Amino acid sequence: MSTNDPDLVAFRRDLHRHPEPAWCEFYTTARVVDALERVGVDALYVGTDALDADLRFGVPADDEVAAWSERALDAGADPDVIERLDRGPTGAVAVLERGPGPTVALRVDIDALPITESTAETHAPAVGGFRSRNEGYMHACGHDAHATLGLGVLNAVKASDFTGTFKLFVQPAEEVIGGGKAMARGGHLDDVDYLFAVHVGLDHPTGEVVAGVDEFLAVEQFEATFTGRSAHAGAKPEDGRNAVQAMAGAVQALCGLPRHSGGATRVNVGTVDAGSATNVVAERAVIRGELRGETTQLKDHLVERARDAMTGAAETYGCEVAVKTLGEAPSATSDVALVDIVEAVSGADPDVTRPMRRGGLGGSEDATYLMAHVQERGGAATYVCVGTDHPGGHHTPTFDVEEASIPVGVRVLAESVLRTAEELP
Q: Is 386 helix (H, G, I), strand (E, B) or coil?
């Protein structure tokens, strides 16, 4: 399987046909594991052996996880791999050991989104027969391509004269900011000297490569449950403690939180769920939202203020509130040493028409957990963007990846891994 092998395209299309949400990527993990075993690796860790299951965020209910596991089997996933996963954590870590040298790693993610894929005649997956078969879910952010890049890079590194250790981290649950912390703390990252993470697109066309993406907003996603006391809204309203009032006060307080002179912050209340009937004082109300900051410190400051605001709103109306973290990730910055290498490699690739040194994300990504873990131990990390033409924006029904960008990404990343091992201490 070379960097230009059509098998990579076929592999990506197979993953595109079988999108799976966070912590339910059973078919995807099984296909990746099967492909890695065919290529041949020195060690392969799957599921609970790949990450710290206790640090997961956003894990669905057991019956939902079980249903996706069964669906993977029905789709043809290897039963042995599904058994190894045991309806538990998905994901994997593969290791190539090639003598003395640094440990270099690549992180890719594999989950999909709850979006119904387009059936339009202009949508390539629909025309080409690889549209999602899991109706209501699709790879609308390119994670099918990310997994494919990981496989291609590992194969290229194995076929090269690379000296050292190469690790491929196949991470679940990025879309819910739920898998990065678990994978970072799983033990396999502790000896990594240099880490690459990758994303396709991000409004960069095919031929562009960004050597170091920055401007990651630290994020915390939360769920706040307000509890009051029900009563008859007509006969005895004074006996009630209205959780909807508390929730409404909290929403206003959250959206009115002051910004910070230290940098950008973001507040969003995304969903609300409350009440049971028009004539019942609501006993329970739930809001879900997120808080972001230009730095982890700014995010932490915002989280503290937000929790105070929600507590105050609850107390005002005689209610209580319990706040739960649904997902979180720190901010991160790509290191100069690796940015230099990727920029040089990109500039020498004949199919990279515009190598870019730096670019901004403007959002959040839990690859930052892995980046920070390596950096805190004296290593270096960078987040690379491989441009690809996508007719629809990310997280839309018409998103797709131009497959010509796959061999470009494999070459740039594999060569960057090789140069890192050769040139950096």
A: strand
pTM of the model: 0.93
Q: What is the DSSP letter of 61?
A: P
Helix 26-39 vs helix 6-17: angle between axes, to the nearest 10 degrees?
A: 160
At 40, the amino acid letter reads G
Q: Which residue is it, tokens 């050597």?
A: 211
User: Are 209 and 387 within 8 A, CB to CB?
Assistant: yes
Q: What are 6-28's pLDDT values in tens digits?
A: 699 999 999 999 999 999 999 99
Mean pLDDT of 354-381: 94
For residue 59 the two structure tokens come to 């894990």
Q: What is the pLDDT of residues 347-366, one digit of tens each?
A: 999 999 999 999 988 789 99
Query: Which domains are present in the chain?
Result: 6-216+332-423 (3.40.630.10), 218-328 (3.30.70.360)
Is the CB of residue 322 less than 8 Å from the CB of residue 243? no
Measured between alpha carbons, how far is 150 from 106 in angstroms, rounded to an integer? 7
Q: Which two tokens stand for residue 50?
A: 């790949």
